[in-house]
Amino acid sequence: xxxxxxxxxxxxxxxxxxxxxxxxxxxxxxxxxxxxxxxxxxxxxxxxxxxxxxxxxxxxxxxxxxxxxxxxxxxxxxxxxxxxxxxxxxxxxxxxxxxxxxxxxxxxxxxxxxxxxxxxxxxx
Length: 124
Description:
By secondary structure, the protein is mostly beta strands. It contains no helices and 11 strands. 0% of the residues lie in helices and 48% in strands.
């Protein structure tokens, strides 16, 4: 059973930066594509970014493209989300997720394991 633990969330002013981390254990992290999603109150869970098993391919949601960067360190079983130029609308709970496959995917239904989430709040 794969376990995912997010960290790095918090309160930041608009225009600032945060880096989220997601530590994986209990599975084959290095052969799993990973993703980040977010959810605000009253809204559906939204795709943010995904990365393939080797880290050579990434894909982003339109709302974060050019501002967020997903990366991974397979030696540390960790995936990261660097968030720059944060906006008020980036406020949400951010979730890390893992697939059983190698390929990056934006489809929520293709993720098999989820972390508990970490709150990111952007203030004006």
